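Subject: Sanity check before I submit

Could someone independently write out the structure tokens for this chain? I want to compare against mine line by line before I put it in a report. The sequence has 231 residues.
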Amino acid sequence: MSVFKFKYFDIIQSISSMKVGTDGVLLGSWVSCERLDNILDIGCGTGLITLMLAQRNSISSITGIEIDKLSSEEAKLNVERSSWSNRIEILNTSLQDYRSHTKFDLIVSNPPYFDSNNSQKRRDIARRVNALSFEELIVHARDLLANHGTLSVILPIASKLDFVQQALDYKLYCNRLCYVKGTPKTATKRVMMEFSLIQKLCQEDFLIIEESRHQYTEQYISLCKDFYLNM
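---
Independent answer below. Compare away.
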């Protein structure tokens, strides 16, 4: 059994199409989630971000939706083994088919971003936009957001302008973003962004993960120390 151990929960990831990765930990650590009633995790995979947000916010009810059946079953198992199972629901459904009377204070997603192809491998399906395009994510998230709600995503830097423009087309405005670099000398690879229905000045920040191999920056340690065991 493949298990990734965090400080306050474990992630079993034997059958999930997507394993624990830095992107998920970054987004789950960075996203604004304090004192929120209802949170939706789109494409929750193993349940990693869902559980991180449950740890960070003791009052929230969290729904995780996952189109891949085996991944959703593993997410349910991880939730059942956690201390927050009474506040979390995992559903095996696509975003396009998901219906909710609840409006969410926060919607979070580590979405697929590779170009479409015809592969039927579960990992390829999870990583490519065949099943969920940026526009579909934006449209459905906007419909599910509370008036004061926030949509938060992590994407490759090359996808930033496209996503921001499509969000603008549906009156979702980028209010906060963080550019992520692996080391001081490498190019920016990722960007984390928060969008809302309220237009205001966007707050920009930068994050470097490592000074050198396995020598993490103080900024990264501060962001993720509540989760990683050896940090």
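---
OP: Matches mine. For the report I'm noting this point. The chain is about 30% helix and 30% strand.
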